[in-house]
Amino acid sequence: MPIALNLVTSPRMNKRKIFNDPVHGFITIPHELIFDVIEHPYFQRLRRIKQLGLTDYVYPGAIHTRFHHALGAFHLMRKAISILKIKGVKISPDEELAACIAILLHDIGHGPFSHALEHTLLQGVRHEDISRVYIHRLNEHFKGKLRLAIEIFEGRYRKKFLHQLVSSQLDVDRLDYLTRDSFFTGVNEGSIATERIIEMMNVHNDEIVIDQKGIYSIESFIVSRRLMYWQVYLHKTVLCVEMMLVKALERAKELMRRGEKLGGSPALLYFLQNKVRLKDFTKNPALLEYHAQLDDVDVISGLKHWLNAPDKILRMLCQAVLHRKLFKIEISNRAFSYAKIRKLNQAAMKKYQITEAESAYLVFSDATVNHAYNPNENRINILMNNGEVIDIALASDQLNISVLSVPVTKYYVFYPKRLV
Predict the structure, then answer these.
(1) CA–CA dist 237, 52 (Å, integer)
(2) 97-112 confidence digits (pLDDT tens)
(3) Are strands 381-383 and 207-211 parallel, antiparallel or unpaired?
(4) Is residue 120 very low, low, confident or very high in pLDDT (cuts 50, 70, 90)?
(5) Residue 3 above 60 pLDDT?
(6) What does the DSSP assignment read for 208-231?
(7) For the residues 237-255, what does the mean pLDDT come to?
(8) Could you tell me where the DSSP H helices lie in 142-235?
(9) What domains are there in the chain, each with its CATH number?
(10) Which residues contact 96 (CB under 8 A, 6 or more apart)?
(11) Residue-wise DSSP of 374-391
(12) What are phi and psi of 395, to 5 degrees?
C-alpha cells in the first residue's frame, strides 16, 4: 500500500516567495493558496520529471524539469491577465487566481520522462486525463478552493478565453515551453518574442485574439514551432532513444507477467505488473498515490537493476539506453515496406537467436507528424484595425504560414547497428 502524500503548512510561514528563473527572471508567488499548491508533494514531484525526456542525449543542456516549466507558464499567465485587464477585459481576482492555478497544474499528470512513456506504463491514458484526476484530488485536499480552477482547466467556465490561455494553439503553456526549451537546448531558431506576443493579446467575442500589429510575431512563433519540432522534439536520435526505452519497459512488463522476478521501485513494479486504465483511478483511490511516487528516478533505477538481467533482450536494451549505444536510424517520407521490416526481423532472429515475436523489440518502425499550425482546431485569430477577425493563415502576407498549416509525416525504422 502506498504512503499517502499529505502536507501540512504552518499558518505562520511566509508564503510570499520569489523564484529566480533563468528564463523569465524573478517569479513571485502572490497568494497563499498558490504557495500551498506548489508545496504539495504532488507538485514537488515535477522536480523529478524532465521536461524533454531523453532529449539531453542530443542536447546536453536539456535537463530542465516540468517544475521549471509549470512555474514559467504560471508567470506568463499572470502577465497575460495583467495585459488583458489593462485593455479593459473584465477579470475578477478570483478568476485570476483560478486561471493561475489551472496553468500551474496543467502538466501535473505527466509520468516519467514526460511524453516518452505516456502510453507505456498506463493503458491508453493521456497525461491530461491524469492531470484532471490530480486536480480533483487536490481540490478535496484544499476543501473545494480549486473548483473554479477546475472549471477553467476543463473548459467549462463561461469565460472561454481563460481556458484558451491554458490550452489552445497560442496558450501560455506553448509560449513558455518554446522559450524554455530553446534556452536549455541552445537551439536559437526556437526563440520567440514571448513578451511582445503577450502584449499583443486581446479578447474579442470571448476569444483570445492578437492585435494586428502583432501579426509578424505570430508568424515567427509558428515558424519557430516547426523548427523546434524537427530539431528538438522529433529529432531522429531523440525518437530512437525514447523508443528503446519504451521497448525496454514493454519487455520488462512481458517478463513480469510471465512470473519472472525483476528489481525496481514499488511504484514502477506496480505499473509493470498491473494493467491500469483511467477508470481504475476512480475505482481505486490508492492508485494516484502510486502514480505520485513514480518519476524519472524510478525508471532509471529500473534500467540499472536490469543491466544484467538473464533475458538477453531486456539486458541489451537497458545497456543501450544507459550507455548510449543507440540503434541505427533510417528516415523516409514514405512508409517502409513490409519486405524491408521482415528482412530486418529475420536478420535479428538469426544474429541473436531469438523468436520472431522477440525480434519486434529490436526492430521497430514508427511515424511522426509535424503540424506547426492547424487551422481546423482552435485558431489563432488576428484582430484587424477595422475590427475584422481573420485566421493567421489568411491574414499573413507570408506564403509559408499557409504551407506550415499542412502536416508533414516522416517514417522511421530502428534496428541494432551491427544487424546489417
Answers:
(1) 13
(2) 999 999 999 999 999 9
(3) parallel
(4) confident
(5) no
(6) EEEEGGGHHHHHHHHHHHHHHIII
(7) 95
(8) 147-153, 160-166, 172-185, 194-199, 215-228
(9) 13-420 (1.10.3210.10)
(10) 78, 81
(11) -TTSS--EEE-TTS-EEE
(12) -75, -25
